[in-house]
């Protein structure tokens, strides 16, 4: 079965272009232009990934992203008009998996969609009471379900599979964003912060991810 990508974009030309490229890459697609229609659609149709424009009629993309994250860990890639807006967006802790700056090449969007989906379908059973289900980024920790974004999942997987090893932010960025995009240290810090918070909620007495001041992060279940 083809994977469904929901394109939320009110510029019709752009939406059609994205549809063409994604369909050619063997995805099935659906386009929505009205922000108010997105959440009900996602609840009902459960797409594999969402491309989400921020400036929309009906409802803005920030609200939409937040609400979706309250019930789903579906990968979300935000489309935004300005690169300098991305830092601000990261600070808002929207739970998006990736950001793409407009104008973009449709080819680049397809590549990012593939990367994000590849991360999210990773499946691995982990010891120490951690288990990842087949959706790839829902983790069970000590029997508690933890909903992770694909980036958070990828970070956890990487750190855990090299338990005890210290990773610098630069090393984490390189692994998480292999396309060598420029992301700031804050990007990694922000994802790690959210990941740790989620793990702490599930298992308050277990500190699993440790920050080593000025150096980076490591997984340690000591
Ligand atoms: Ca728009």
Segments where pLDDT lies below 50 for 5+ residues? 123-127
Number of domains: 2
Number of DSSP E strands: 10
Indicate the structural class: alpha/beta
How many angstroms does the end-to-end distance come to?
A: 43 Å
Radius of gyration: 17 Å
Quickly name the level 1 CATH class of the largest domain.
Alpha Beta
Bound molecules: calcium ion
Main sheet properties: 5 strands, parallel
Topology order in helix (H) and strand (E) letters = EHEHEHEHEHEEEHHHEE
Query: Mean pLDDT, as a whole number?
Result: 85
Please list the strands of the largest sheet in the order they lie side by side. Answer: 2-1-3-4-5
CATH topology of the largest domain: Rossmann fold
Secondary structure elements and pairings:
Blueprint: E1 4-8, H1 12-24, E2 28-32, H2 38-45, E3 49-53, H3 61-69, E4 76-80, H4 84-91, E5 98-101, H5 106-120, E6 130-132, E7 138-141, E8 144-147, H6 150-161, H7 169-176, H8 185-202, E9 209-212, E10 216-219
Parallel strand pairs: 1-2, 1-3, 3-4, 4-5
Antiparallel strand pairs: 6-7, 7-8, 9-10
Helix pairs in contact: 1-5, 5-6, 6-8
This protein binds calcium ion (CA).
Calcium ion binds next to loops.
Distinctive features:
single chain; alpha/beta; Rossmann fold; Arc Repressor Mutant, subunit A; 3-stranded antiparallel sheet; binds calcium ion
Fold and architecture overview:
With about 220 residues, this protein is of the alpha/beta class. It has two domains: about 5-125, Response regulator (Rossmann fold); about 125-220, Winged helix-like DNA-binding domain superfamily/Winged helix DNA-binding domain (Arc Repressor Mutant, subunit A). The chain contains eight helices and ten strands. It has helices spanning about 10-25, 40-45, 60-70, 85-90, 105-120, 150-160, 170-175, 185-200; strands at about 5-10, 30, 50-55, 75-80, 100, 130, 140, 145, 210, 215-220. The strands form three sheets. Strands 2-1-3-4-5 form a five-stranded parallel β-sheet, covered by helices on one side. Helix 6 crosses helix 8 (about 185-200). The longest helix is centred in the last third of the chain and has 18 residues, at about 185-200. It is globular and about 55 Å long. The N and C termini lie far apart (about 45 Å). Mean pLDDT is about 85; it is low at about 125. Calcium ion binds next to loops.
